[in-house]
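Reproducibility note. Readers wishing to regenerate the assembly model reported in the main text can use the exact inputs given here. Chain order matters: entities are listed in the order in which they were concatenated for prediction.
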Amino acid sequence: MANESEPAKPLDLPAAVKEAAIAALVALGLFMLLIGIRTDQGPTGALVFTTRFGALAAIVAAVFVATLIRATLLRGAGISVARLLPASVSTAASALTGYAAAAFLVFALIVPIVFYGNRYLLDLAILIATYTMLGFGLNIVVGLAGLLDLGYVAFYAVGAYSYALIAHYLGLSFWICLPLAGILAAFAGLLLGFPVLRLRGDYLAIVTLGFGEIIRLILLNWQNFTGGPNGVSAIPRPSFFGLPFNPSEHGFAATFGLAYSPTHRVVFLYYLILALALLTNWVTLRLRRLPIGRAWEALREDEVACRALGVNTTTTKLTAFAMGAMFGGFAGAFFATRQGFISPESFTFAESALVLAIVVLGGMGSQLGVAIAATVMLGGFELFREFDQYRMLVFGGAMVAIVIYRPRGLVATRTPSVSLRDHKDIPAAIVRDARTETAA
Amino acid sequence: MSAPILTVEHLTMRFGGLTAVNDLSFLVYAREITALIGPNGAGKTTLFNCITGFYKPTVGRLTLAHPDGASFLLERIAEFRVAREARVARTFQNVRLFAGMTLLENLLVAQHNALMVASGYTLLGLFGSRAYARAQAGAIDKARYWLDRVGLIDRADDPAGALPYGAQRRLEIARAMCTDPVLLCLDEPAAGLNNRESAELNAFLRAIRDEHGISILLIEHDMGVVMEISDHIIVLDYGLKIADGSPREVRSDPKVIAAYLGVPDEEVAQVEAEVGL
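Running the prediction on these inputs yields the following structure tokens for the assembly.
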């Protein structure tokens, strides 16, 4: 299927060979040390140096051939992978979005029933749901309001520590601590919001990055309150509205006449985080159709025009930060109760980066995209676990491919919040996002 | 001549060593179209930014008097309050629309403050209050009216960024009108429009003045537009006011001619003395 609007260029073999040779040379330089050389610990404890030039030659040859094929066959026939793929994918995606979302939800609801016996998969599902919720929360800040936040993990940490410390010092239950954790995280959001009101794009990203680290360092160093690097342990587990998940006669299993099983708690945790994620989703979708949501999106599109129309951009930005932070705080409280133990190590920059990657990959502002991206990324991580250190290589390659072929994420259209007659999605090329901010 | 809606007194705006607007005083009358003209760099857009609150003037006072008697000192309030409370709406020289949002959404953002109150500052709206649904329906009706007036009703559900240039300019005026202004400030509304479009614009601006009783202050380089629709013209050059009057008076003013066309070499000193340079 050739792209008809683009006339087929004549085949230029020497140029193609040259391009492939350059690509192979770059690959050689890159993989020389990564693949060509290997050091292992020998029987005496000394390092044993081995070379793997065969594997190196194979990968360089593979890069050469792949580049040559791309440069001759695909381009020669007028086929551009970059144009071919998104067109078919996005038409299919926009037609199926509604069904896909429903199917995804139904699948999410029956996961514990289908995989009841598989503890490993249930834990993975909980992890995915947690990151989906974090993605939804960050999506309010980055996707809707267009404020690039690299320190989102700070709010996750505030939520987790709020629950852990309130439960530890005051002995309040999970269901009372959950809203408190959200409120405290929202305050942290306001605290971050005030100093960064005037910042956009890259500058905002740097300050939020710093904020995330500040929170982590406070948790690490405030030894006598937070426990420092030792963290907080023995965090109370959630109860089923007062019924604890234990083998006692007042426990969940005994009350409902079931045989005690530790899986009950896992299933309960799964439905809890699923409910929290769906709540986040519902609130976000609702807010988008309210004046505040439209003001967030308008802020992303043009802040000066917002002010000229009488929109108070200060409160608009602060509410976006607070709202995103609040959901991060809920997710944090859930994380604390699920793990039973938290330490500052769980809240490093890598977590912020992962959540941001989920939002970017999913398509900024798209709820379904975020859910799919969280599933693909975390599921992919687990799927490739046996590939050991090559897992990161595959992950990096996948990210590069997405940046090239789907720069606006998986679901790259914006759905208008209101329509007069016919409802149609807006192509992402017109919509501004947090990354285009500095270009303006 | 009606009562003044905007009184500008001794307005001066300096950026470091550069004086963009220098001791400027003039009046804008209610229900009139006032044009602000002058060569490039005369300080017109700076003046606009002062009136709409985007710049805080170095010296001077800007008094806006509403028809109901309320009055506002514009130099003292933040720019979003100038739009929200003093009800001065503006457009921009380089069109600033919400490109990724539909035309309808653009006009709803302009009604943000009213809708915000109706949605109980989001809380009532979140739980689907009936009052908010009514308020939104009203806002959509108003948006529909203005889209119809600028001839863009058929494209209501298209993204604003997909419109041709002339339509974007019209949409920006419609969006400003949705904020219910008493004074509408237009920065070069006819720039980039063809003859037919600028004739339509003239008719539209007259309709805004006559049907809705709104005062218009506009910056324009297209003299055809200025002379045809203005009730009152103020001419700036190097931040100073060099003429102020009806189109006929301004057109024959030697200082204005000198500012626009230049003067013979032997008269330069004399004209400069008159202008006060």
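We highlight two features of this model. The CA atoms of residues 31 and 56 of chain A lie 7 Å apart. Residues 13-79 of chain A form one domain.
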